[in-house]
């Protein structure tokens, strides 16, 4: 694949993702909103290929998180503008803080990947245990409160 055709494919995918996001926001259909972000994140991962870790990855992560939060917020505001006016500033601060925390957390993960810790079965087991613990924390936080 030539560089020009590669750029053309990426441009078409990006345009398709943006159009799907616009449709999801115009309808509003929250079921459409995650897919453009998945496509954009996949495109970013595809451009990295098998190369080095991108030092700008935390900013991309924070940007995708910010777009997702703003998109969902815009669908929540439909029909409830009077109630939302009082909470606008608070919600903006919360969304920006969340995006900055996402950038910081992904930057911490990126920094942790550059620490040489060796290799072997013990390190692999520790990594698997940490992944299981992280998933358990996410599952616990995602569980609806009674």
Walkthrough of the structure:
- This protein has helices at residues 3-26, 34-48, 57-76, 81-84, 88-113, 121-142.
- The model has no long low-confidence stretch (mean pLDDT 85).
- It is globular and about 55 Å long.
- It has one domain (3-142).
- α2 (34-48) packs antiparallel against α3 and α3 (57-76) runs antiparallel to α5 (88-113).
- With 146 residues, the protein is mainly α.
- The longest helix is centred in the C-terminal third of the chain and has 26 residues, at 88-113.
Number of strands: 0
Contiguous helical run count? 6
Instruction: Tell me, briefly, the overall form.
Output: globular
Helix amount, in percent? over 70%
Separation of the first and last Cα atoms: 54 Å
- State Rg: 19 Å
The proportion of strand residues reads under 5%
Average pLDDT value? 85
Unreliable parts = none
Query: SSE order in H/E notation?
Result: HHHHHH
Structural class: mainly alpha
Q: Tell me about the largest β-sheet.
A: none
């Amino acid at each position: 694949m030539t560089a020009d055709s590669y750029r053309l494919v990426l441009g078409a995918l990006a345009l398709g993702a943006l159009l799907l996001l616009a449709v999801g926001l115009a309808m509003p259909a929250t079921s459409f909103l995650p897919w453009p972000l998945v496509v954009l994140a996949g495109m970013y991962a595809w451009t990295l290929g098998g190369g080095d870790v991108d030092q700008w990855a935390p900013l991309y992560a924070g940007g995708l998180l910010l777009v997702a939060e703003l998109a969902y917020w815009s669908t929540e505001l439909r029909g409830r503008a009077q109630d939302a006016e009082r909470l606008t500033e608070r919600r903006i601060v919360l969304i920006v803080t969340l995006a900055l925390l996402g950038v910081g957390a992904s930057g911490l993960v990126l920094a942790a990947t550059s620490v040489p810790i060796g290799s072997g079965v013990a390190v692999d087991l520790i990594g698997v245990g940490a992944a299981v613990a992280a998933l358990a924390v996410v599952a616990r936080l995602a569980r609806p409160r009674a």
